[in-house]
Amino acid sequence: MKNKERRPLSKGRPDAGSSRPSRTAGPAKPAHRSEAPVRKEAPARKDAPARVQAKPQQQASQAAPVETRPLWPRSGDLPAERVPVILESSGAGDFHLIDTGRGLKLEQYGDYRIVRPEAQALWQPTLPDHVWEKASAVFTGDTDEDGMGRWRFPAEALGETWPLSLLGVDFLGRFTAFRHVGVFPEQIVHWEWMKARVEEAKAQGRTLKVLNLFGYTGVASLVAAAAGAEVTHVDASKKAIGWARENQAMSRLEKAPIRWICEDAMKFILREERRGNHYDIILTDPPKFGRGPNGEVWHLFDHLPLMLDVCRQLLSPNAVGLVLTAYSIRASFYSIHELMRETMRGAGGVVESGELVIREAGLDGKTRGRALSTSLFSRWVPA
Ligand SMILES: C[S@@+](CC[C@H](N)C(=O)[O-])C[C@H]1O[C@@H](n2cnc3c(N)ncnc32)[C@H](O)[C@@H]1O
C-alpha cells in the first residue's frame, strides 16, 4: 500500500465524547478494565505518524477521557470502486435462514429453530404457521435491533448455550438478552473471504496478522486463527471475551496465536498507531453506540472517520484488506463507501461496498427464497 499522506490536519475533530446512552454496547459494563493476557505497553515509536491528544474529561464524570487526533490529509487518487456489491450468503455449517415474514425470521442454528424479530421482513412468510409454531425458541421483546427482551421456549426449557459449527470452527450458540445468539451469520461472507486470503498467504509462506475490532464472541477471530493467521481480537465486554475464550477451547485452538484484548476499540488502535504496529487484514464491525470498559463512548457517526483513518495507518505495506460492516444505521452504503474511498485515497486498490444479505433456504436448507438485507459493508482491497 502506498502512503502518500504527509501530516495530520491541524484542527481536531469535533468532540468525541457523548453522554448519549448506549443501547447497542451489548454486555459491556463500565466496571471492568482488561483481560489477561494483554501485552505490556511498548514504548511509542519516535517516528509515530500522528500525534495523539488526550482530551480533558469534560463529559460524563464516569467516562474515561476520550483520546483523539486530527485526521490525516489524504492525497492522490481515490481507489477504484465497485458498487453496489451484494454479498449474499445462504448459510454455512450449522446455520441457514429458513423463512421470513410478518416482521419475523425463522432460523436454523444446529438442532434449534429460532424465531426472532426482523424489521426488514415486510412480506408474508412462505411456510405455514404450524412450522413456525414448532420453533425451539422465540425472542419476544423490543422490536428494535439490539433491544432487550426475553426468550420463550415453546416445547421444552433450553439451556443458555448449545454447540454450533461454522467454517470448521466450533463455538456456542447463546440466548442473550439482546436477542442475539452469539454469532452474526451474515458475516460468513466476510469470514470466507478472510479465510481464503489467510490460506493463500500461508501457502506462500506468509502468516497474515488479523485485527478484529468489536470482535464479540470471537467466531471471526477463530476462523482467522484456524486458517493460520496471527490474531488480535478487541472487545469492550469482559463477558464477550470470556465467551470468545470458551469458543476458543471448543474449537481446540487454545494454542493458536490469538491476543484477547478487553479494551475500548478506539483507544486500542490509537495506541497501536503510536507503537507503529501493523496488520494485514482489519475487520471492524462497530455498533451504532457502544461503551468501552471505562465508559469511553463510541458513537458511529462521530467516531467512524477517525477509526478508519487510524485503521489505514495500521495497515501493513502489503495489506490484504480493510473490512467495515455497519448495522442499523440510518445511512446508505454510499456513506461508508465514500468515507472508505477518501480514507484510502492514494493507496490504490479498490473499494467495494453494498449490503450483506442472507438468502432464505427453506426447511431443507436448499430451497432458494427471498433475500433478507442485514447490514451495510465497505471493503478496501489492494486490487
Ligand atoms: C455487533 S457486535 C460485533 C459482532 C462481531 N463482529 C461478530 O461478527 O461476531 C458489537 C460488539 O462491540 C462491542 N463494543 C461495543 N462498544 C465497544 C467499544 N467502545 N470498544 C470495543 N468494543 C465495543 C460489544 O461488546 C459487542 O461485543
TrEMBL record:
Matching InterPro entries: Glyco_hydro_b, SAM-dependent_MTases_sf
Domain of life: Bacteria
Signal sequence segment: none
One Pfam family it belongs to: Cons_hypoth95
GO biological process per UniProt: methylation
Keyword Transferase appears in the UniProt entry: yes
Ranges for region Disordered: 1-77
Protein name: 23S rRNA (Cytosine1962-C5)-methyltransferase
Biased amino acid composition, Low complexity: 53-65
GO function term, MF aspect, one: methyltransferase activity
Keywords, in A-Z order: Methyltransferase, Transferase
PANTHER family cross-referenced by the UniProt entry: SAM-DEPENDENT METHYLTRANSFERASE (PTHR43042)
Basic and acidic residues bias locations: 1-14, 32-49
